[in-house]
Amino acid sequence: MASSQIIYGLPEDTDYPEGTIKLLRIKVIEGVNLAKKDIFGASDPYVKISLLQNNVLMDTKQTTVVKKSLNPKWSEEFTFRVNPVDCVIHLEVFDSNRVT
């Protein structure tokens, strides 16, 4: 692994037994036929990646926004430090122009 790689998720100094914490690499490749979300029939999508541990949000990251596309291509990688026993990853697609 390159030393410049950023690792998100659980802190490095957790109190888990040795060998319990793993690195999970997520590659967001593309979206296909996303829903039209604005009046012009396009979308400005991005993907939000959330790490939860025991239903508590631990970290969140997102891809770049791809302007005016229903078939966006991201090819972005994220590495998270996780405990596979009690961590859950959620991936959600949003439109950056939508007001929530």
UniProtKB/TrEMBL annotation:
Q: Which InterPro entries match?
A: C2_dom, C2_domain_sf
Kindly list the biological process annotations in GO that this record carries.
Answer: regulation of neurotransmitter secretion
Which Gene Ontology terms of cellular component type are present?
Answer: synaptic vesicle membrane
Domain (C2) ranges:
2-100
Q: Which UniProt keywords apply?
A: Calcium, Metal-binding
- Name any one GO molecular function: calcium ion binding
Question: In its UniProt entry, what is this protein called?
Answer: C2 domain-containing protein
Organism equals: Arion vulgaris
